[in-house]
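Propose amino acids for all 346 sites.
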């Protein structure tokens, strides 16, 4: 590096060359004692060197405040744009939809509507940005059950009814069935292979912008026993890091479906940390996986019927457990032949 552009005296510059320090980053990573030992400079010279390096680094990497990020939405689309759920009520509840960067988890008991929401996202992502989509397809990774292809076809045929906000011509021009890529992963190695080798190819070519895993807990419950907790945590952290890398690199949301387990009363401190203290069930995989998530949603099925005009459907509840931009809150929804619809209940 050319040290002459820094405000340093020749003695300090010569010491840097002699110590073979080549970048500002090297200076900032060393402590005062280490710099003095390596360069043989005095303490005042080392302090001056660090200040000069910090000033240069700040000029090269402009700091953005949270207020600037909030106001200048056009410059930071991934922080402000969301992937629509295909329903205006659910979009309003989630402040626009699913974040484009990060892992969103949907946890809940069987028949709560988790797969229905995931399938609807696979169709919603194919719309243009004008209608809440990303103009690309989705990959749906199944780890336990067969892919519900028949249900997907039902949703495709009903898009003109569910998405009344989209012109009919725009819906007809989208080949929904051709842009949902299906992968079956029978074990963790197959899942890892899919994430590290197959998904990057589809993302680089622009074929997909949404990753769905259904479900994330199935493989880990089968392959790890209670005595393998540390090894399981290590694999979960590695998996989360790989998914985060893909999501950040390609601005592609990751949507993971998770199972639930019965709540253990002795784990109150952990449940409080996760926002689950008052629940009878909690998402599987524990805190190791929870720390990988940007947003956690939970869904449940009630015993009540949905009010008119949503007659015939069971009332379900979606809850935000934690999210960076939404306080803990709940919304009702129902699932019918046309898809998932939010319900405004007074």
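Proposal:
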């Amino acid at each position: 590096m050319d040290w002459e552009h820094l405000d340093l005296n020749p003695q300090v510059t010569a010491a840097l060359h002699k110590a073979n320090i080549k970048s500002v980053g090297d200076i900032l990573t060393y402590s005062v004692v280490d710099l003095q030992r390596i360069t043989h400079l005095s303490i005042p010279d080392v302090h001056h060197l660090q200040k000069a390096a910090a000033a240069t680094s700040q000029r090269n990497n402009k700091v953005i405040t949270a207020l600037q990020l909030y106001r200048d939405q056009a410059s930071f689309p991934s922080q402000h744009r969301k992937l629509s759920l295909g329903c205006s009520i659910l979009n309003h509840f989630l402040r626009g939809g699913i974040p484009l960067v990060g892992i969103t988890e949907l946890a809940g008991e069987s028949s709560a509507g988790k797969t229905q929401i995931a399938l609807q996202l696979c169709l919603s992502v194919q719309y243009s940005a004008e209608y809440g989509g990303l103009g690309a397809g989705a990959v749906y990774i199944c780890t336990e059950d067969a892919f519900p292809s028949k249900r997907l076809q039902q949703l495709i045929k009903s898009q003109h009814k569910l998405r009344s906000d989209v012109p009919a011509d725009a819906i007809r021009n989208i080949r929904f069935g051709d842009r949902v890529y299906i992968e079956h992963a029978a074990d963790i190695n197959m899942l890892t292979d899919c994430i590290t080798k197959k998904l990057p190819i589809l993302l680089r070519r622009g074929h997909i912008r949404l990753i769905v895993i259904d479900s994330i807990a199935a493989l880990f419950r089968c392959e790890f026993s209670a005595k393998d907790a540390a090894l399981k945590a290590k694999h979960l952290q590695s998996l989360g890091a790989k998914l985060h890398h893909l999501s950040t690199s390609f601005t592609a949301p990751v949507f993971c479906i998770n199972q639930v387990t019965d709540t253990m009363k002795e784990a109150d401190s952990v449940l409080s940390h996760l926002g689950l203290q008052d629940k009878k069930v909690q998402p599987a995989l524990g805190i190791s996986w929870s720390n990988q998530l940007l947003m956690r949603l939970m869904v449940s099925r009630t015993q009540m019927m949905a009010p008119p005009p949503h007659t015939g459907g069971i009332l379900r509840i979606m809850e935000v457990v934690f999210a960076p931009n939404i306080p803990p809150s709940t919304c009702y929804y129902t699932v019918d032949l046309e898809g998932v619809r939010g319900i405004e209940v007074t």
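The CA atoms of residues 93 and 331 lie 7 Å apart. The longest helix spans residues 229-250.
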